[in-house]
Amino acid sequence: MKLIVQRLIAILLLVIPGLAAAYGFLLMKDALYDYFAKIGSVDVINPEFSWGLFIGGAILFLMGIGFIGGWIFFRDRKHNYLSSRFRPRIPRSDARKTEDGRTE
């Protein structure tokens, strides 16, 4: 039973940021669509872009995508699936030592 609860929590930790990213994308899409719809309207002379809706959607989208991307990155690092440029560097131990014990 404990394993089922842990897996449910793990799935929720990925689904909630995914839903936030999808909702942020929809907010940005709606802001752009409303602006272009106002441009095509004959009644509106100077259409205004809803920057608050667009920026709020962009923040939600970037936070959701960033969380999921970071989770995948650290999971792949744990399983050693990353390419060599993303792996942590191991210091070399074969450096020469000087007379006073410092490395060159």
TrEMBL record:
> One Pfam family from the UniProt entry?
DUF2627
The cross-references to InterPro entries, in alphabetical order and at most eight, read: Uncharacterised_YqzF (IPR020138)
Origin: domain of life: Bacteria
Which keywords appear in this protein's UniProt record, sorted alphabetically? Membrane, Transmembrane, Transmembrane helix
* Residues annotated as transmembrane: 51-74
Identification of the protein by name: DUF2627 domain-containing protein
What organism, scientifically named, is this protein from? Cohnella luojiensis
